[in-house]
Amino acid sequence: MLNALRQAAGSLPAKILFGALMASFAVWGIGDVFNNSGRDETVVKVGDSEISSRFFAENFRRQMNTLRQLNISEEDARKLGLHARLMDNLISQRLYDLQARDLGVFVSDSALSAEIKSQAIFLDEFGQFDRGRFQSALLRDGRSESAFVDDLRREIQREQVIDSLVPGIPPPPPLANKINQRRGERRVAKYVKILVKPAGILEPSEGELDTYHKANSDRFTSPESRVVSYLHFTSQDFVNEIIVSEQDLRETYQDRASELAIPERRKILQLPLDDEASAVSALARISSGESFVNVATELAGGNDISLGIVSRDELPVEFAEAAFLLEVGESSKPLQSPFGWHVIHVATIELGSIPSFEQLRVELKKMMAEEAAIDVMYSIANQLEDALGGGANLEEGASLLNLHVSRIDSLDQNGHDPDGLPIEGLPDGGRFVETVFNIEVGEESTLIETEEGGYLIVRVDSSRSPLLRSLASIHEEVVSAWQFEKAQEAGVEQAKRLIEELNLGKTLGIEPGHQIYSVVMSDPFTRNGNGVGDALPLSIVGDLFERRLGGAAMAEINGGAVVAQLADIQLANTAEQSAQIELAVRLRSEYSTDMLEQLRAELQQRYGVTVNESAVDALY
Description:
This protein has 24 helices and 17 strands. By secondary structure, it is an alpha+beta fold. It has four domains: 2-168 and 595-619, Orthogonal Bundle (Triger factor/SurA peptide-binding fold); 186-220 and 474-570, no CATH class; 222-242 and 361-468, Roll (Chitinase A, domain 3); 260-350, Chitinase A, domain 3 (Roll), CATH 3.10.50.40. Strand 15 (552-557) and strand 16 form a beta hairpin. It starts with a helix and ends with a helix.
């Protein structure tokens, strides 16, 4: 399973998408490592540390919150291999954590504080640490201050392990110069695109068309399709059947009054200071009558002193109890946290309240109906399984439970109808099609729990094998395909004749007969295609770097061919300091990446990584 997922994760779109995303896992995406309590099932064991299915699911959910802002669905993320990328990242972090532990790597509180105060996300417009921004970031991420600090400490320990074992290695100067010359060289070519319009090609004879149709049978064959019956239901299908009595409504209100309460909220100000003595001095000024705001503004160095209007649960544990014992206008005694010392102040208090029964009647009734509908759905699912297990077919089971069996008369493996159009409204998205084509004709699937929390069972009633469509039914389509192919061949033949001329020493565009071509001069481009844009295909770029001045190359393009003649060679400026620095940085990064891969392999061999394949399968 993991190997298959890694193939998806290795695709170019996946690498581009998840490269930056995985970099953010370090502190903001990965939770507690060695204290992961409440495990469900161990997915991977790394040395004496375990990764549980719950721990993995929590981290996956957190990353999906970020991806949804980019309009990427969970199904798209699965196809791109986010699961495999995340799993590999978690395993790597566990390996480095174990190595840091065994090496006795230590991070002091002062170093930790300095690291936090240097992170750009927490700095104000003057480049100073802003406690308010720090707290806001934690609130947005739904994390406590202590959890963040613990995660950051481990991340610094990992960096120390990596930096000590995988230093940035400078490349040898002769090698760097040679690579710089190769990568920095640019070339310029003049080129023409030879395109032949299919409309100018005479139509084929019926004999030619018949031969072409048969020779390209794969192209004109419709895919396998299946006739499908399925039963799909969710809790929403039963909500309208739920009757919530007035007595149940009032009893639920009484039972859940504490849950429904609006908590007390307070506007909290804070004065962050470096040491206890400064905090005591500041509190003495405030106690003697000076305004907290004036003292804090003076001593905070421009940092935002407001923590916002928050409930007790939204405050760091170091502040919560003290803040909710104070009255309006009162300031706390000096409090210590991992970031220094603080004096906090209560500016306003919004008392908590419990909404009245009538205020919550509609919302509470809806909530109770939805909860009851979920119970009904589970009961229906169990009864359906019992009925099918007792020999009932899909229709009989549905009739017994007053459910509706739906039917699709033709579904192919792309989720399309006979006209090649996507079938809308398929339950459970791509997994529905996958299920249909993973069972035999006449078989029923097991009862599947869908991603949205409903249930689905599928039966394949019949199948139509891939079928070569008759020439008569797609005559115009085959004619168009034949004409396009002949136009392509004609363009390539013209390009070959032009190449022969250029290889005899002629110059593109100035020879008699070249007037029919529109000659274009390219911008300078490198071996990897930088600068070429859409002008030339990459295949011809490599050929041009193998040619001398005046040498020519060609490549097929859609509708014909392109012919290019090398017009200029621009050697790399090896004396340009910025280019040498850029190359040195790139090579150092490539060297370090190779060594980091070797380090992970060595740590994996040392500590051992055991994958619970059945648990991994259950995740996907």
